[in-house]
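Hello forum,

I keep getting stuck at the same step: I have a sequence, I want structure tokens, and every attempt I make locally crashes halfway through. Rather than fight my setup again tonight, could one of you with a working pipeline run this one for me? It's a single chain of 228 residues.
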Amino acid sequence: MHRSSALLAGSALFALSGCVPSPPKPLSAANPNDAVLVTASANLGGAPPSNHETTAGAGTAVPSEVGTRERAARLEKDWRPSELLTTKDIAFALEEDQSELEESAEWACAALKPKPEAFTTCVTRERDAFKAHVLQFTMDPAGRLVLIAYERRGNVLTDVFQSFVEFTEEAAEAVTVKLVDQPKGRQPFFKGERELRLQFPNRYGFFLEEPRYGRITYKSKVGLAPRP
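Reply #2:
Ran it on my machine without issues. Output:
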């Protein structure tokens, strides 16, 4: 009788002890069963984004920037020079600090360096001889492609050259602009030549290597030139 009571009491105590929950086991990166997911939303508070993502149950780290870089690379290459040149309301402004106009002028006047006043006058004259401060590629009413060069004086743009053009020998980062028919005005660069090779280091502008002026760099601007 006493033995049965003891067994019943022991069973009751065992059952009661099983009802007490164990403390939660902390998540640990060392535990392969733990699932940790780092998302962009975790960084909305201003913390820098994580360099890696770990997918649930995978246990392996994958660089989170890879997809972003690949998408950016595709976007960067998903354009052609001719498309950039003919984008609506886009013109190309001379980037003097990225060009060699000043150096070329000084080189052309080098013989006058012993005479500072004459040298300065010569450099100014040589530098002012360049008139193509803004370039624009646009369509005339008949649908023909036209290159227009503008001289810039203050905020005023003056049309100094026009020519029908065609694009040839287009590559991923360069295109040749071929002058066709009889141009209007004085050709501002590559005088006597009918083909201009434009090189694109990126999708925001281009440069030309000109025999007299050296490298001439242009950057795209929205709404800079008047509509023809």
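The beta strands are 52-54, 61-63, 90-94, 134-139, 145-153, 156-171, 174-185, 195-202, 205-210, 214-222. If your local run keeps crashing, start a new thread with the error log.
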